[in-house]
Amino acid sequence: MRKNFLPFALPDLDETELNEIREVLESGWVTTGAKTKRFEEEFAAVVGARHAVAVNSCTAAMHLALDAVGLRRDDEVITTPYTFAATAEVIRYFDAKPVFVDVEPDYLTIDPALIEKAFTPKTKAVIPVHIAGLPAEMDGIREAARRRGVPVIEDAAHAFPAIYKGHMIGAISELTCFSFYATKTITTGEGGMICTEDDGLAERCRIMALHGISKDAWKRYTAEGSWYYEIIAPGYKYNMTDVAAAMGLAQLRKAQSMYARRKEIARRYGEAFARVSELQVPGDRADAQHAWHLYMLRLNLDRLSINRAQFVEELKKSGIGASVHFIPLHIHPYYRDAFGCRPEDLPVAYREYLREVSLPIFSKMSDDDVQSVIGAVAAIVAAHRR
Ligand SMILES: Cc1ncc(COP(=O)(O)O)c(C=O)c1O
Question: How many angstroms separate the alpha carbon of residue 267 from the centre of ligand 1?
Fold first, then answer.
């Protein structure tokens, strides 16, 4: 039993973020400006994307991405139920329909073999989610989308820095959306990024992120700016502030070392749990780099006398914060009622959800923290073995 409670997630912040933020505060320019531009440039360079547009959340990023590909009322978007609310709610912003496709049991990412049957003439985009930071099977997804002439928008909220077959996530599809929420692999408190190779898509995202005002709206209060602007569409207020971008720049420079620490924690968990028959360790792909945003353990419930909720409760009693990712979207009341979804419609997502437990995995965890999680899991398994 730990003396203090180990939270499920904590950001890795120090003097480097403080120094960057201090610079912004002292400059007197606290909203979108030079720091945001630098953050965009540095992020684009790291993932190898032509454009990176910084916004105030991944939800905003995906809303803008769907706007940029021209989603309209009654259109359909193929996506996965095994994700957070944001992935599908942005589809509903347009009164369009999320078409849920089940996931691969080992990886919990959308199953490319099932995507083919989900296309209709109304399909306007495919949104795979790199759940936990593990890239989805992009070749199969992109090939299916390409055959139909439909763009792919990657929900990469968990997937920085992640690699699929030698390409960084962010440099593969028409549009890729990242999250810098407080618990994510790099954080700006709240924040997001849209990456694309396409000049037109980038321009549309930039314009719609700031009120639909044509070109460089943020510059209108600077010396080089002008009071004159034109509204070309009813846009949104999704711009990132320089305070957030300053934090992002500091986080970006630490991203590799934070990733290395999470990878090491995942390795240690794997070593401890891989041969425990009551547990299933997360799937990994040989041709990808997992960002290890989450460590999604699965319980072999037929070998345990407690259920998943009790397992989480036992961890809590041992002083360890755990979580569950995710309650599949199709079993939530809204999607159940609006689209008549039943749990068994997406049997893999539903079955795997019932036995998933996410363990803490963040770079500030000490070796003792990691060991205490391993010890607690082992003790719970030993006490409740069937
Ligand atoms: C898979 C997924 N997509 C999108 C989001 C939305 O990110 P944000 O909070 O930056 O809007 C999240 C947030 O947790 C997420 O887990």
Answer: 25
